[in-house]
Amino acid sequence: MTGGAGEIRSSAELPGSAERVWQELTAFATFPAWNPFIRRAEGALVVGSRLRIRLRLDGLPVPFRPTLTVVDPPYSLRWLAAQPIRGLFDVDRRFEITPLGPDRCRLTQSETATGLLAPLLLPLGRRPILAGYRAFEAALRTRVAAPPSRPPHLREDAPMTDTRRRVSNGLPHQRSDSSSAENPPPIAPAGGAPLWKRRISSHETFAHDSIDSLGYDWERISNPTMPPRFPRKIYLPQTTEDIVAAVREAKQLGERLSIRSKGHSSNDLVLTEGGSMLLTEKLDGILEVDREAMTATIQAGAVSAQVDDHLSELGLGLPVIGDHNHITAGGFASVGGISPASHRFGLFVDQIERLQYVTWDGDLVACSREENRDDFHKVLCGLGRHGVMATLTVRLIEIDKYRTVLKNHQQHHWDVEAFISGAAHAIRNPGEAQYERGVWIDFPRRGGGSFGMGQFSAYHPTDQTAYAKARDRLSYDALHGLGYVGGRLPARVDRALKLAGMTGVLFSPMYATVKNVEFFTDKVLDSTVGDPTRMFIVLAPLDRFEQLFRETYELMRRYRTERDCFTFISVYVKSITSEYLATGGRGNQFCELMFYQGMSAGGMDEQVLEELVTELDDICIAHDGFRYMHTKTSKDPARRDKVDPNVHWTRLAEQRSATTQEEVLGA
């Protein structure tokens, strides 16, 4: 039985008395040992008590804080899970026990959802919730048929005395022989946002990790009709030893091995038609969290959003994280890694303390900022040229990203020169801004011309009031609701929702949690809705910002007018304080311009694209800047070398190696 449109219900007969079932139902401390659905329950068993509940839905953790409304042993237990603003999405959860005899009873589980979002969210959760109900019933049936057990002395969340935390995640792919010093058992990423928000993707029409996806990279976002380029052989390592074995085998067979994590590149970096691919999908563990050193050691295929969610349960977080919920640590490190906090913390690679990688000869190399420094710097931002990253040790900060609310100090501009001036002042003078970003969007007019609008958001610390948190929750539930349904509806409705989402970006909410700032546009705008889109990213010294913006923006407008290859033009701006980029006397202050363009059907082809990126690279070179190398660059090797931030470090390492060899020969 599943219940009506606003209700989910399931009923099961159990081989035990009502008292016996009640005993197991309320022995919260035992849940982690046997309950597959309610993985954690804590709190006093009295009406009015707030519980801590963590469900497991579709393999994902869903934490919430309901209030007990009925405690009637051994017949009824009931709680209400309400949003900070009542009437938005409230769930009344019930457990009803009906005696059928001395050793038999019926357990009926049900929940009723009410509120503005209930018609949208309850149908989406019906299938996984019912599956959870039935898994719970099956486990409880086994439980009550056995003798009563004593609750454990240690709770699942008992504090640890060691400053380091190392736990096995019990995933099927983890092998028992992988718990060596080099490959300790991973920690399962856990915690974080509600299930429906974690499922929001900026590309609902395809997945990153299906078999079909292995023939594509991010180019399919701008060219949905591109033909696939499937590999012939796939290596799926789970440990560092597996990587070594795969690389050595490929070398012995004379095969070129490409590396793929989630395929975010649109610069022809990961596809290998008919070749061999090393897929980092199963290199997904958190190996160690060291509170004393404030570092975490993770495998290169670990998804940074999932790592951050696990860290959030420990009151920690990654300083720099991508704005997309499928970015892996190794993929991020291979290109640099930028976030709205980069004006404070730099690139993701600036936060890496040490790493292990496997060279293309199959040798395992450990390096850090102090040990094998040349290897360390040439592997970072190296696009996989020098080998396969296996593990990374990254810095952490103490932060509560899901509950800390910031206030958005926001500017709006209707003239591009006013936007350039306002953004330049903001990124050069961030003050106490914890996170910041700006965006200018230019739309074409029918009949010619265009109109634009810009805004800049600087997120500052604020009082953690109920009002601020309610404003954040209400605003972002609405925006994320748009993002959740985007890509699932008829095309015209999807386009209208995307326009509403773009309006939400331009008029960003006044209050936002750190996590809502980090994942803002990715949770609101679906790249597969409406016009195909493409990104071009330029990095340059901060003192070049104004002129760089004007030249690159006019380049895009000219191509739209003359080649009819773009629809809308948007450019997102951030500032970066990076030691990695500070090469050749540049200093460590940089700006990022990320162009996110709507592609015009028929107006863009390979020749036009190559001409465009060649001009873009030349502007970048003229301003002593770099390109973000996972976005399209010129195919000319000389130009690519000049705009690739890794080339300086690689050449420096080669020069030092040559000098060392000369000294050895001279001796």
The helicity comes to 25-40%
Instruction: Domain count, please report it.
Output: 3
Low-confidence segments, given as residue ranges, are 1-5, 149-191
CATH topology of the largest domain: Vanillyl-alcohol Oxidase, Chain A, domain 3
Q: Helical stretch count? A: 18
Q: What is the gyration radius calculated from CA atoms? A: 27 Å
Query: Major sheet: order of its strands?
Result: 23-20-22-21-25-26-24-27
For the residues shown, what is the average pLDDT? Answer: 85
What form results from the Cα inertia axes? globular
> Main β-sheet: number of strands, strand sense, barrel status?
8 strands, antiparallel
Counted beta strands: 27
The CATH level-2 architecture of the largest domain is identified as: 3-Layer(aba) Sandwich
Strand content: 25-35%
Q: Class of the largest domain, according to the CATH hierarchy? A: Alpha Beta
What structural class is derived from the secondary structure elements?
alpha+beta
Taking the alpha carbons of the first and last residues, their distance comes to: 85 Å
Biased composition (Basic and acidic residues): 153-165
Protein name: Polyketide cyclase/dehydrase/lipid transport protein
Region (Disordered): 144-194
Pfam family, one: Polyketide_cyc2
